[in-house]
Amino acid sequence: MHINELESIAVAGVNWRPVRRTLGITGFGTNAYSADAGQQLIEEHDETGGAAARHQELYVVLTGHARFTVDGETVDAPPGTLVFVAEISSRRAAVAIEDGTTVLVIGGDEGTITPSAWEYYFAAQASLSAGDPQAAYETAAAGLDDHPDSGSLLYNLACYAALAGDREQALVHVARAFELDPDTRAWAADDSDLDAIRSDPRYPSA
Predict the structure, then answer these.
(1) How far apart are CA 108 and CA 46, in angstroms?
(2) What is the pLDDT of residue 206?
(3) Tens-digit pLDDT profile for the chain (206 aa)?
(4) Which of 176, 166, 154, 155 is nearest to 200 (CA)?
(5) CA 61 to mean position of chain CA atoms
(6) Where in the chain is the domain with CATH 1.25.40.10?
(7) What's this model's pTM, rounded to 2 decimal places?
């Protein structure tokens, strides 16, 4: 649905659009707030009060233009601005400085999110593109703590290790990837990243 289809409820001095309730989201908190120039967009608050969820909060300016204040620091926030408030005790508020300003707010408990396996090898791409497969390997390998049995993560680690000249590590990872995820065998069939180890007798057979 479009955010403008959500009911706008005037409450506590702001205009609340109940995203979470409307969509039935149970994995994280999320709401939106809309205001015209000069109006309060986000009420001044922290996340320690009796009714608060004690969430870290991310504010995403979708339209218009806002001015945030976080612990006394002013943040100019045109569309596309991300304002992340990590500390639940931080005081935060926002006013609209243009008509039609809308902010999406996403909240969740600190430390409860396990990053997806793909996030690690996506993050490694910058180093790989810069010609540093060893750095790419180190970035992606941090994901093994959370995802030791992810075939796709292990496959990418095999590629990075092979490109970095670490034959032993590459062979270990590719064998385990093949074992865990049959799709990785098809990926490997024409993947030049693995050329450095493909002729090794220890390379797992199809």
Answers:
(1) 14
(2) 61
(3) 999 999 999 999 999 999 999 999 999 999 999 999 999 999 999 999 988 999 999 999 999 999 999 999 999 999 999 999 999 999 999 999 999 999 999 999 998 889 999 999 999 999 999 999 999 999 999 999 999 999 999 999 999 999 999 999 999 999 999 999 999 999 999 999 999 999 999 999 86
(4) 166
(5) 17
(6) 117-193
(7) 0.88
The CATH number, out of the four listed (3.60.20.10, 3.40.50.2300, 3.60.60.10, 2.60.120.10), of the domain defined by the range 3-108: 2.60.120.10
Asked if 80 contacts 56 with a C-beta cutoff of 8 angstroms, the reply is: no
Give me 156's structure tokens: 């990418």
The Cα–Cα gap between 61 and 78 comes to: 7
The rounded distance, in Å, linking the Cα atoms of 16 and 9 is: 5
Q: Where in the chain is the domain with CATH 2.60.120.10?
A: 3-108
Count of residues making up the chain: 206
Question: Facing residues of 34 across strands?
Answer: 15, 102
Shortest CA distance to 136 belongs to which of 154, 157, 105?
A: 157
Q: Are 142 and 153 in contact (CB under 8 A)?
A: no
CA distances for 31 relative to 15, 72, 118, 180, angstroms: 11, 24, 27, 39
* Domain range 117-193, CATH architecture: Alpha Horseshoe (1.25)
| Interatomic CA distance for residues 158 and 22, integer angstroms | 44
**Tokens at 94, concatenated:** 């926002």
